[in-house]
Amino acid sequence: MEECQKLGLTKSIGVSNFSCKKLQTILSTAKIPPVVNQVEMNPMWQQKKLREFCQEKGIIITVYSPLGANGTVWGSDQVIECKLLKEIAQAKGKSVAQVCLRWAYEQGVCVLVKSFKEERMKENLDIFDFELSPEELHKISLLPQHKGYPALEFVSDDGPYKSLEELWDGEI
Ligand SMILES: NC(=O)c1ccc[n+]([C@@H]2O[C@H](COP(=O)([O-])OP(=O)(O)OC[C@H]3O[C@@H](n4cnc5c(N)ncnc54)[C@H](OP(=O)(O)O)[C@@H]3O)[C@@H](O)[C@H]2O)c1
């Protein structure tokens, strides 16, 4: 990728699903450091340690599965059905999806949300007319954490990662 950038084939280098440990490894040898790390993040998987690390190193976090990827084969409804998020959504007159997206926006990360439905695309953009209160943010920060997509299919006795521990460097 460094060669590609030198040849003008890409403007910048990004990585995905990198733990703090993998970022540290790449930063120790990279001549051109990655500018972005795309990772799973939502109120049920807040990535506090990784966000602090990336902020310190000047790496932008881009969030995938900000709604917990409900309705997909790799996701679940644990985020969209969260009782606390439902209560906050009701109090704000917003949907749980909008609360999740607003929360991510207020954390200062880039957000990748996906919908095939035009109405939901509009709903997902309509998050700039409200704010989460310090109390709501505090309650969200206390939610039990559980990574929605452990990516077990990348673990194999014949591959480079023989356990989830190795795949995520013990960071899940
Ligand atoms: N780098 C990686 O390893 C990685 C991994 C996973 C995903 N991604 C990327 O991240 C993008 C977004 O993540 P994601 O698709 O995993 O999860 P997501 O955006 O959290 O959730 C998408 C799911 O939520 C539904 N949805 C969208 N808006 C909604 C709303 N307002 N209310 C209720 N449900 C809503 C969608 O259904 P409808 O389409 O029917 O609306 C879809 O089933 C994907 O497009 C993918 O490219 C990257």
From TrEMBL:
PROSITE patterns: ALDOKETO_REDUCTASE_2, ALDOKETO_REDUCTASE_3. Pfam families: Aldo_ket_red. Residues 1-140 form the NADP-dependent oxidoreductase domain. InterPro entries: AKR, Aldo/ket_reductase_CS, NAD(P)_OxRdtase_dom_sf, NADP_OxRdtase_dom. One of its GO terms (molecular function) is oxidoreductase activity. Gene3D superfamilies: NADP-dependent oxidoreductase domain. This is Aldo/keto reductase. It comes from Corchorus olitorius.
